[in-house]
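During the reporting period the student researcher (J.K.) took over the structure-prediction task from the postdoctoral fellow and processed the backlog of single-chain submissions. One of the processed entries is reproduced below for the supervisory committee.
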Amino acid sequence: MEFKQYIRKPFAVQAVEITEENFEEVAAVVGQVRTKGDTKFIALDRRLVPNVTRAYVGWYLTFLNDNYRCYSPKVFNDQFVEHQPATGYFFDETEEVLEEPDPTAFDVV
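J.K. obtained the following C-alpha cells:
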C-alpha cells in the first residue's frame, strides 16, 4: 500500500459573526431565538444548518453554495482566516483558482 500526500483545497465562504446587534436578524434567517435560564441562543433549523443545533453571540454563520454552517469562535478561527488580497491566492465560491502568485516570490527553505 502506498500513501500519497494531498493538500486540502482552500475555498472562500461568506461569514458573519453573530453579535448582540445582529442576533435577531441572524435568527430570522436560520432559526428561532430561545432562552435557557439566563442564556439566549438561536435554536437552529437543522434543515438549514445541519452541523449544530444552537448558536450564541460570538459564533459565526457561514454561507457557501446555498448552504449555511455555524461554528464556535474556536472552530471558526482554527479553520478560517479573513481574506486578505495580498495573500496571493484568490478563490471564488466554486473553489476555482482566480489568480496564482509568482512562484519566484517565495523563499525556498
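The committee noted the following: The CA atoms of residues 3 and 9 lie 18 Å apart.
J.K. will present the remaining backlog at the next meeting.
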